[in-house]
Specification:
The complex is a heterodimer. Chain A is mostly beta strands. Chain A is built from three helices and eleven strands. Chain A has a single domain (43-194), classed as Oxidoreductase, molybdopterin-binding domain (Sulfite Oxidase, Chain A, domain 2, Alpha-Beta Complex). By secondary structure, chain B is α/β, with parallel strands linked by helices. Chain B has two domains: 12-115, Beta Barrel (Elongation Factor Tu (Ef-tu), domain 3), CATH 2.40.30.10; 123-261, Rossmann fold (3-Layer(aba) Sandwich), CATH 3.40.50.80. The model of chain B has no long low-confidence stretch (mean pLDDT 91). The chains are: A mainly beta, B alpha/beta.
Amino acid sequence: MTTRGFFGRRREAPPRPIPPGQYLERGFPVLTAGPTQRIPLEQWQFSLVGVDGEPLGQWDWAQFCALPQTEVFTDIHCVTKWSKLDTTWKGVTIDDLLAAAGVVNTPPYLMAFSYGGYTTNLPSWDVLGGRGMVALEFDGKPIEAQHGGPARLVVPHLYFWKSAKWLQGIRFMDADRPGFWEQYGYHMYGDPWKEQRYWGD
Amino acid sequence: MTADFGTPTPWQIATVERVVVETYRARTFSLRLAEPRSFRAGQHYDVRLTAPDGYQAQRSYSIASPPPPDGSDAAGAGLADVIDLTVELIPDGEVSPYFHEVVQPGDALEVRGPIGGPFTWGSDLGGPLLLLAGGSGIVPLRSILAHRATAAPDSAALLLYSARTPADVIYRDWLDAQAQCAGKVAVRYAFTRRPPPLWDGYARRIDPPMLSDCIAALAHLDDAGRPPLCYACGPTGFVENAADALLSVGISETSIRTERFGPTS
């Protein structure tokens, strides 16, 4: 349906295509359901958990920083309609994390869980092959608390609510189950190029 | 690859019934929905505008009106056939100037909703309620306050509304009427730029002493003096500050619900 009298006031032409329904944002908006979590580094722990709750690996901050660090240069897309281009993230790829834990057979799904109780579900395939990382730095600096520091998941090819802030660990699952926003009507997968914002998209 | 979960939220056509000028930069649009749907106070709708060349822009706007009284949908909620969306003008924006400069009664708009989960309130959650609004963050809190008046009139509520100047306050008459006619509701303003002459209320940003003051006042309104359920909505900086201040005066994290908009610098 064409909207009467609307011609679009494109604030800035994107230098490359951005997903449908998105607009360019220079700042870095915040989508969080509660207060910002502030986790002291000396108390920070990261866990990798198997489908039956068995521990697969655990790291404190120093141990985590000693894992191989990879830099990723990417665009990010939030379900609240903004896209931010040319962001740089540095951290530990899930591939390197699994290798460090000696995990060979990866169960099909995972639930990322965070300090403060946030969760989000992903197919494991979507975080492997360099497509997902636990980021510790954004644009060359430690990630600020309001943007999910000290460590957040970054899975840039999906809407950014999948990139859980204040990440505490990853729990593998045999079957897909909805996380926090997914229970409230957000899409189970969240591909921005298919505009999978909400249930049924 | 992944099965869908839950029921879809389809796009539908809404007809603009009425446009109300709230302030110099806020207008309320009453939309009649082709397909009435129930909603919870605090939720929002998405609006999609389409240009003749197919270019589309989408934005989310909070519902200002309360959910209708309980009715006959599957969950026992009433179906809303008209919803009010209040749109603040962002001068260099793309969608809000369209609303302010072009939209008039009779226009058809594509909308989908309701959307949003944790930042909602219903009588099942009870009170007392401490509502913290920053600028146009008042919009979903107005829906919550209006819903409280009919769904849980015995629940105490205190709204602390931070605005730059009195001219920026949306729904001023309605809010003051709520505070005057309902003994359980209090409304306080904090003006951050230019308070009115002889103003003896707050003239600063929200801080812990101000919140302690409001929580004490709310405890007087609530018969049981219970700790409040808190909702903070506004620009990112406002909400960050308000949520941190709530934690610092002893409100538990699980009692704080937030909704932020706009970028950080």
